[in-house]
Automatic annotation (TrEMBL):
Coiled coil: none annotated. It comes from Thryothorus ludovicianus. PANTHER family: ES1 PROTEIN HOMOLOG, MITOCHONDRIAL, GLUTAMINE AMIDOTRANSFERASE LIKE CLASS 1 DOMAIN CONTAINING 3A-LIKE1-RELATED. This is GAL3A protein.
Length: 225
């Protein structure tokens, strides 16, 4: 029987929601791994809406659950309904929506607050010793909720201009967590906390390398489940 995995989204679109390629890559690798997946998102208003063609704010309001339903092909549930007891693992793709909608990292950095349902979901899986997979910017959720954990967002220096957000690693360290430097096609496993992370689009890399890195994260999550 395949592992039961919950996938948590933050909207639809890199600048104000979930990064679509990351969500798709996670779903493809989970499917290949024989997992049974259910998708969730918080039923809240987005912090902002971005015109992805112009890269500028749009004067409108959107709902995170409704927008995430686009990625889920309509098959999605309110995050408030997620029960950790019904799953073997949980995975969070990245995208600015994580830093805007699931927490306030985009505005407050290491002083951010985490959405109550996101925090309770992470804590429930952690308490049950069930694995948590995070990619791109979403490892900051673990850094905020689990002081002392180990995560990666890639490199802690902007190596060859490929890691423009390398300062995120320093902010994670300031939260009392250990940042582990990894390449885009790798993931890091915090065995003590069963947290698996990979940097994905935190690195400027070809799409197939990001896809492969997410694949290693999914594989490690399924191994731990």
């Amino acid at each position: 029987m395949g592992k039961r995995v919950a996938l948590v989204l933050a909207g639809c679109g890199v600048f104000d929601g979930s990064e679509i390629h990351e969500a798709s890559a996670a779903l493809v690798h989970l499917s290949r791994g024989g997992a049974e997946v259910k998708i969730f998102a918080p039923n809240i208003e987005q912090r902002d809406v971005v015109n992805h063609l112009k890269g500028s704010p749009a004067e409108e309001k959107r709902n995170v659950l409704v927008e995430s339903a686009r990625l889920a092909r309509g098959n999605i549930q309110d995050l408030a309904e997620l029960k950790a007891s019904e799953f073997d693992a949980v995975i969070f793709p990245g995208g600015f929506g994580v830093a805007k909608n699931l927490c306030s990292w985009a505005v407050d950095g290491k002083n951010c607050t985490v959405n109550e349902h996101v925090s309770s979901t992470l804590q429930a899986f952690h308490s049950a010793k069930k694995p948590i997979g995070l990619c791109c910017i979403s490892p900051v959720l673990a850094a905020k909720v689990f002081p002392g954990c180990e995560v990666t967002v890639g490199q802690d220096k902007n190596v060859d201009g490929r890691f423009p957000d390398a300062e995120t690693a320093s902010a994670i360290a300031e939260l009392g967590c250990k940042h582990i430097c990894k390449n885009v096609n790798e993931s890091h496993v915090d065995k003590a906390n069963k947290i698996v992370t990979t940097c994905a689009f935190m690195c400027k890399a070809p799409l197939h390398e990001i896809f492969d890195g997410i694949g290693t994260m999914v594989q490690e999550v399924l191994k731990l489940a």
